[in-house]
Fold this protein.
Amino acid sequence: MKKFWLISVVLGTIWLTGCENAKEDNHAPPKISVDKQKIDKEKMTTTEHDNAPIPLVLTQEQKEQYYKEYTSIVNQINGKYQTDFEINPIHTFSGDDWLELKDFEDMLKGRIDSSFVMVDNKEVHPPGAAPKLVELHIGKNKTIIRINGSFDTQLSANTPEGRQLFSALHALTSEIEQGDGKWTQTGYDPLMIDEGRVYYITVGGYYSFNGVSSPHNFEIEYYCNENGGIT
């Protein structure tokens, strides 16, 4: 009888120990493999790399100090890459324009390469309101500029078909249609060619972004069809 009692005690102790271990396992944090941790870290690094620079929150005194550093960076970039960047007045800086010095320099270097592409559009417009769209590519960013031209046309008896031709350019304005930054037109130079069928116009202006402006010129063409429609 004593032998059977000892066996029962031993079995009960083993059973209780197993229950306690099971309770501990249920509350233990899940184990993450080394590969899983590596993948999560790579995802975090990629996400941080893709994010845009975070603007700084500065006091007025700090802003003035950063502005001096920005001016120095602009002068260095202009001297090294033969660019014409101009830093905007400090009072025009918005909250998003204040960046770490390295981010500011990287932003500026990214704007060195720029190009314009005229958007192909065959839609016919009246002479008084003839729009054009131009893509401004600066680094990886694309900004669409809308040009609005106002013309006069007249029937020409000097052409065999008696068609309409350009007679005058009254006004030409431009503004950002889509994208970041600010575009300020500074002037335009029109040239009528092909006996009045075509206006070839050079447009000049400044593109401003992140507290820095850069000058740009691009060329557009307007066509007058035989009925006086403009494309």
Q: What stands out?
A: Strands lie at 86-87, 114-118, 130-138, 141-155, 164-178, 182-193, 198-209, 212-223. The first strand starts at residue 86 and ends at 87. The chain has four helices and eight strands.
